[in-house]
């Protein structure tokens, strides 16, 4: 069972699947910005912000509203850390780069960051809307907020497994390959939280299935490795599990990983 904090507010709501929601303190000093079924996180530390993942090109106005909701502004964003370089996590990255925000990414995902639509899935994507028509509104909403117009980036600093980043919140980098070659999670031990990106989600955009799971093979390039990477997440022992898609899971990483293993990969 998952649950979210009650401090949830819509940010410029439009159509149901395209609206943005802001959830403050989903973990201590960690805030969730959700837009078109994708999540970014704002880690607050001493008045400065680390943004984790960059949603879609049109998400910028929602980011500004989220920052204002916690009394911050774009000038307080000191780093963008990407869990991976898929288009729905890269959307605002070029704009933030142009504004002088340093970007962090695992080197193995550099080719995707440069060419956001060039990644290789384990199974053809085009078959999934036929198999899982319930996912069509999710995918359509992503298109409507700019998913097909994401600009690539080439300038970024390298993430390394096991290092603690010198950015607000001091997240510890955990290599969790499988979804992409360079996928990482970010452990925040002092906040009892782990930002898992798409290594584990509670909403699969390609099937519309909910509950902890690994993203479908339509967007995962090595399903077996993705399942193996769940062990890295499990070892954190974190209570708050913050995924790239779907609601936060606040009942502990152990239960989330067990559910994901039981669900398998579509």
From TrEMBL:
<protein>
    <submittedName>
        <fullName>Glyoxylase-like metal-dependent hydrolase (Beta-lactamase superfamily II)</fullName>
    </submittedName>
</protein>
<dbReference type="Pfam" id="PF00753">
    <property type="entry name" value="Lactamase_B"/>
</dbReference>
<keyword id="KW-0378">Hydrolase</keyword>
<dbReference type="InterPro" id="IPR001279">
    <property type="entry name" value="Metallo-B-lactamas"/>
</dbReference>
<feature type="domain" description="Metallo-beta-lactamase">
    <location>
        <begin position="37"/>
        <end position="245"/>
    </location>
</feature>
<dbReference type="InterPro" id="IPR050855">
    <property type="entry name" value="NDM-1-like"/>
</dbReference>
<dbReference type="GO" id="GO:0016787">
    <property type="term" value="F:hydrolase activity"/>
</dbReference>
<dbReference type="InterPro" id="IPR036866">
    <property type="entry name" value="RibonucZ/Hydroxyglut_hydro"/>
</dbReference>
């Amino acid at each position: 069972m998952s649950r979210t904090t009650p401090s949830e507010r819509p940010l410029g709501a439009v159509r149901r699947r395209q609206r943005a929601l802001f959830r403050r303190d989903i973990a201590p000093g960690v805030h969730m910005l959700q837009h078109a079924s994708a999540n970014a996180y704002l880690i607050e530390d001493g008045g400065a912000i680390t943004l984790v993942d960059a949603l879609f090109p049109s998400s910028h106005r929602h980011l500004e509203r989220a920052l204002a909701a916690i009394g911050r502004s774009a000038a307080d964003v000191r780093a963008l850390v990407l869990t991976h370089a898929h288009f729905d996590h890269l959307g605002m990255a070029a704009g933030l780069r142009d504004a002088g925000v340093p970007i962090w990414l695992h080197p193995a995902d550099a080719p995707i960051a440069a060419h956001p639509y060039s990644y290789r899935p384990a199974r053809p994507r085009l078959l999934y809307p036929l198999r899982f028509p319930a996912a069509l509104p999710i995918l359509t909403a992503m298109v409507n907020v700019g998913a097909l117009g994401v600009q690539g980036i080439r300038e970024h600093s390298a993430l390394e497994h096991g290092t603690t980043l010198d950015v607000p919140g001091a997240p510890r980098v955990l290599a969790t390959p499988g979804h992409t070659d360079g996928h990482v999670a970010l452990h925040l031990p002092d906040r009892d939280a782990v930002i898992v990106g798409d290594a584990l989600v509670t909403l699969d955009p390609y099937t519309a299935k909910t509950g902890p799971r690994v993203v479908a093979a339509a967007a995962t390039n090595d399903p077996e490795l993705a399942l193996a990477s769940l062990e890295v997440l499990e070892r954190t022992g974190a209570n708050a599990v913050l995924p790239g898609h779907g609601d936060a899971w606040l009942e502990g990483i152990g239960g989330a990983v067990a559910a994901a293993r039981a669900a398998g990969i579509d």
